[in-house]
Amino acid sequence: ASILGNIEKLHLLGPGRCYVEFGAGRGKLSHWVDVALQNAENVQFLLVERATTRFKVDGKHKKTNSVFERLQVDIQHLCLKKVPILEKKKLPVVGIGKHLCGAATDLALRCLVESYTACSDGGNEEPEPKRCRTDLTEVAPNSAVDNESNKEDCKPVAGIVIALCCHHKCDWTHYVGREFFKSVGLGQVEFNYFQRMSSWATCGMRETTAKASASEESEDQTNKTEEHEQMLNKTECGSDTSPGMLTAEDRKEIGCLCKRLIDHGRIEYLEQRGYRAALQRYTESAVSLENVLLTAVPSPALIPEPTT
Ligand SMILES: C[S@@+](CC[C@H](N)C(=O)[O-])C[C@H]1O[C@@H](n2cnc3c(N)ncnc32)[C@H](O)[C@@H]1O
């Protein structure tokens, strides 16, 4: 039931693939995928991270066949088709992530499903990007995607496995489920309420997370605190400021429902673009309250062959 177990269950663990880890931090998930691959041939890892993280596990991969590359970039500016190794090798991509916060998940989905999928054969090129930061980046398209172009050209993404978190850090601008919200008569105003109330689901997290990471990650504490703002202020969490009747349990349940509603929009987005998508718990709540995994694979007719 682990993240790795789910990657394997979806037949995404094997040679001839490029694993793109979004919001990689120290790249631990890629590290464990690499270990599980047992020196499989022709495997590439791209670790996408905007922060200047200390890359403690990077050195450990030198002994394996796999090639690791770091891209220090904000996901919203990443265009995978411009990454030289992907341009050259045209490997099917597996998008992975562990605790990819809020809007970063939506950006990653757009990056895979819109900019990479739609452009990678060159047949359905997007218009020229509005601005480029480096030769690897462009502004990801925000408008509704052209469904037809994606149906015709879905080969490059073999699968997506992302452990979700921090829905309170989602935003309407990047959210991929806007069409779903609109289809059920909801809009930005309601989204903003759900996004804020989603933090109620993890209000007890502060203590658990702090305890769990104290010894192991003391070195990275600054980065953790800065980047993984599970720490919510009293206005969001405190019973003292909640509107009268709601108990802590009520708030937690409402928070969880808000998270699932936001995630449902993501599922609909993926399904409308030819993916079989699902949400599942990958670990116990006692281990992490952020224990939901978003998975997606192309619908059967569109499954890419690994490149050997
Ligand atoms: C909660 S941390 C998880 C880090 C790592 N995956 C782990 O499990 O330890 C989320 C990471 O996503 C990165 N991140 C958030 N938004 C991002 C974005 N738009 N582009 C690139 N990285 C982003 C943060 O810098 C942070 O390192």
Mind explaining what this structure looks like?
- The protein is an alpha/beta fold and 308 residues long.
- The chain has a domain at 3-173 and 259-302: Vaccinia Virus protein VP39 (Rossmann fold, 3-Layer(aba) Sandwich), CATH 3.40.50.
- Helix content is 35%, strand content 16%.
- The protein has helices at residues 3-9, 28-37, 84-89, 102-119, 147-152, 178-183, 188-197, 205-214, 221-227, 234-237, 248-272; strands spanning 17-22, 43-48, 67-71, 93-101, 157-165, 275-281, 292-298.
- It has a seven-stranded mixed beta sheet, with helices on both faces.
- Helix 2 links the parallel strand 1 (17-22) and strand 2.
- Helix 7 (188-197) packs across helix 11 (248-272).
- It is globular and about 60 Å long.
- The two termini are 29 Å apart.
- Bound molecules: S-adenosylmethionine.
- The site of S-adenosylmethionine (SAM) has 19 residues, from strand 4 and helix 4.
- This is tRNA:m(4)X modification enzyme TRM13.
- Pfam families: TRM13.
- Belongs to the methyltransferase TRM13 family.
